[in-house]
Amino acid sequence: MAADLSVLILTLNEEKNLERCLEAVRWSDDVIVFDSFSTDRTVEIARDWGARVVQRKFDREPVHRTASLHLGFKHRWVFNPDADEIATPELAKEMLTVIETCPPEIAAFRMRRKDMFMGRWIRHSSLYPTWLVRLFRPEAIRFERNINLRYLVTGPEDRLRHHLLHYSFNKGLDEWIAKHNRYSRAEAFESLESLSAGEPDMAGLFSPDPVRRRRALKEESFLLPFRPAWRFFYMYLMRLGICDGAPGFHYCCLLSFYEYMISIKTREILAEKAGMTL
Q1: Which of 18, 130, 188, 225 is the most buried (most CB within 10 A)?
Q2: Is 240 left (phi over 0), alpha (psi -120 to 50) or beta?
Q3: 274: pLDDT confidence band, cut at 50, 70 and 90?
Q4: Residues 171-192: what's their mean pLDDT?
Q5: What homologous superfamily is domain 6-166 in, according to CATH?
Q6: Peptide bond preceding 156: is omega within 30 degrees of 0, i.e. cis?
Q7: What end-to-end distance do the CA atoms of the chain give, in Å?
Q8: If pLDDT is split at 50, 70 and 90, which confidence band does 217 have?
Q9: Which pTM was predicted?
């Protein structure tokens, strides 16, 4: 298939994921791996697959991502999967079609992904569908927030029908827990900022835009007591995680544990500001 589409993959120690991700985009003649000085075989794998490797020391997520948009892409459109996200052949075909046929003012496309855990798609437990910006024109993209990055698109967006496959547990539970342990402190700071910013976006809870609706729901959750328990109840029962079988139960437990880490670290930050310890 014709492939007038560049591919950008950001990496840090992704030897367990990268080869599969690169294999899924082998149709592109412009694949760039933007690496944060990995210490495993990430760079070697990228070069073996013919990707162009550019390295930059990671500092802050929005700054690093912004730097990735200025690498001199061969094509006007960029597909930007995470290393643990796989573009199915159906998605690849759809992307290559829409960039040729879409109106010229379109700046980005959102797509859904299927989150995989314990050998199956956890459709309910993963808050499906979440619409992610992965296909865009680089000049139309900006970023905000240091954790759970938010894409700001200058111009109209559209949506794709097919999915990415997301394997966030490929590195094992130890790595997933370690990553979310790091994220939880940043989430704690974000929750405190949200609470001090004033009124939450109540109207967003009823917005037809799923991105705004999910953001508003998260802001509202900062006000809830017993957040970890509510997170499990919401994911497992209200969002029907129970229908995902044993993987759904374990996944909802992990997310509840993540909420607990955010909650206790929020208390820790408040104690630090007051000159105390927990």
Answers
A1: 18
A2: left
A3: confident
A4: 89
A5: Spore Coat Polysaccharide Biosynthesis Protein SpsA; Chain A (3.90.550.10)
A6: no
A7: 59
A8: low
A9: 0.86
Query: Do residues 260 and 180 make contact, with C-beta atoms less than 8 angstroms apart?
Result: no
Comparing CA positions, the residue from 50, 78, 76 lying closest to residue 68 is 78
pLDDT tens-digit map of 94-107? 999 999 999 999 99
Q: Quick one: tokens of 77?
A: 């459109």
According to the 3-state scheme, what is the secondary structure of the chain?
A: CCCCCEEEEEECCCCCCHHHHHHCCCCCCCEEEEECCCCCCHHHHHHHCCCEEEECCCCCHHHHHHHHCCCCCCCCCEECCCCCEEECHHHHHHHHHHHHHCCCCCCEEEEEEEEEECCEECCCCCCCCCCEEEEECHHHEEEECCCCCEEEECCCEEEEEEEEEECCCCCCHHHHHHHHHHHHHHHHHHHHHHHHCCCCCCHHHHCCCHHHHHHHHHHHHCCCCCHHHHHHHHHHHHCCHHHHHHHHHHHHHHHHHHHHHHHHHHHHHHHHHCCCCC
> What is the rounded distance in angstroms from the CA atom of residue 8 to the CA atom of residue 202?
36
Residues in the chain, total: 278
In the chain, where the domains are located: 6-166, 173-273
Tokens of 45: 């794998």
Alpha-carbon span 51 to 31, nearest angstrom: 5
Summarize pLDDT for 11-62 with one digit per residue, the tens. 999 999 999 999 999 999 999 999 999 999 999 999 999 999 999 999 999 9
Tokens for 245, please give them.
Answer: 């079988």
- Dihedral angle over CA of 245, 247, 249, 250, nearest 10: 160
pLDDT band at 213 (very low <50, low <70, confident <90, very high): low
Structure-block tokens of residue 111: 């797509």
Split at pLDDT 50, 70, 90, the class of 146 is confident
